[in-house]
Automatic annotation (TrEMBL), chain A:
Main localization, broad class: membrane
Family membership: Belongs to the binding-protein-dependent transport system permease family.
Stretches assigned to the ABC transmembrane type-1 domain: 22-213
NCBIfam families assigned: HEQRo_perm_3TM
Membrane topology according to the record: Multi-pass membrane protein
Alphabetized Gene3D superfamilies for the sequence: MetI-like
Keywords carried by this UniProt record: Cell membrane, Membrane, Transmembrane, Transmembrane helix, Transport
Organism ancestry: Bacteria, Bacillati, Bacillota, Bacilli, Lactobacillales
Cited CDD domains: TM_PBP2
PANTHER family, sorted: ABC TRANSPORTER MEMBRANE-SPANNING PERMEASE-GLUTAMINE TRANSPORT, MEMBRANE COMPONENT OF AMINO ACID ABC TRANSPORTER
PROSITE patterns named in the record: ABC_TM1
Name of the protein this chain belongs to: Amino acid ABC transporter permease
Iron-sulfur as UniProt keyword: no
Species in which this protein is naturally found: Companilactobacillus baiquanensis
From TrEMBL, chain B:
Segments passing through the bilayer: none
Organism: Companilactobacillus baiquanensis
Positions in coiled-coil regions: 107-134
Pfam family, one: ABC_tran
Every ABC transporter domain range: 6-241
Name of this chain's protein: Amino acid ABC transporter ATP-binding protein
Top-level taxon in the UniProt lineage: Bacteria
Keyword Nucleotide-binding tagged: yes
Amino acid sequence: MAHSGINVLFEGTNLTRLLLGMWTTFKIAAVAIIIGLIIGVILGILRTFHNPILRFILRIYLEFFRIVPTVVLLFLFYYILPRQMNLHMPGTQVATLVFALWVAAEMSDIVRGALISVPIHQKESGLAIGLNRFQLYRYVLVPQAVQLELPATINLVTRVIKTTSLLMLISVMDVVNIGQQIVEANNQKYPTGVFWIYGLIFLLYFLIDYPLSWWAGRLEKKRLEQANGE
Amino acid sequence: MANEVLKVEHLEKYYQKKHVLHDINFSISKGEVITLLGPSGSGKSTLIRCLNGLEDFRNGEITFENKKVIPNEKNWQQLRQKIGMVFQSYDLFPNLTVLDNILLGPTKVQKRNVDEVKQEVDELLEKVDLLDYKNVYPRQLSGGQKQRIAIVRALALHPEFMLFDEVTASLDPEMVRGVLNIIQDLADEDDMTMIIVTHEMNFAQQIADRVLFLKDGSILEDTPGKEFFKNPATDQAKEFLQSMNF
């Protein structure tokens, strides 16, 4: 047991480093999600307006972030922005920016979809009591849309958290990158260490994502039950 | 006429190429109740939806309280506080409790004092026997209860004029009476000016001061209620009353 692979986790500061890496990952994801969701809701609302130019621009934005793979986006922002636009940002900021823009794009589509699936009668009866457009969105349409789109939003969040595992590609010291370093440094002493390191990383991601996924499923089920009970 | 609430002149409505309302002319005075009758698809709903700006119209003029309505969103938004409307499908907001559904207009649109409005809402709910349901969500109510709340929601804005668009059409038969009684009370006690689209002929006969009979988008008859049911002038109206087993 002297050289059992699990001990790699307790060698030196390995465990602390991994957890700090997870914290970096979590911070980037959390900031990107919060900013992205706020921008996404606003863009989603704008996309329900009847201004063709605005709709076209926002559509292009959405399609760009949806079609281009996240890895490419990360490289694009990390390598090309500094060179072409002389904009130097550390990897964590680039990552936060890319993820926030991606979340905003996806969220705008979720919000738009939810808003247009609120029945037209709801809009009319809101207008009939004298609500203006802002009030109509604020009190009637957005609250109902949020309820409709919450499961999709939670699923988006879990996808974002999972995708942060790409951050090592732009040299962010996230949990995967640190894990990789530890594996390489300890390869001689702990040949099976790789299994334990990635096992722990798996567990950390699972612990964050699974409850979210469970929550989304539960909300969806509840909503369907309610809809059928009407 | 001095006490004229609403006047419609030469109103035309198209859906794309389809001409759905032809040269509509009528007026309604304070306290008068008009029922709008006619076969399905004759344009009744479209007409009353034009009267609070939910449908735009191509030509013609609407005058409300002796002021010509300039049909833009801002004006309609002001006018809708005075012109209450209740729909067939009730359309309470499912994300708000009964009380909040009713408070939304008076407190957010009219910015009236919340406590004052709440007291008034209690009285209105008491009147329609639904005070106990103040804090429940619409999904917990029956169709008839929802429709009574929808009427209270419209009345809470202190409208001068009410539009009812087939408000009993999707209710179970035993729920219909309760809703109609509320409308009848509005006519009798509050002297409310109303235009009612309905398929309940007995009710129409009972409440109507005047009947507008609409067919294929034109007003074929504009007659006092009693006379219309006893002695309709046009064959189309006779046929219609017969088809309604009246």
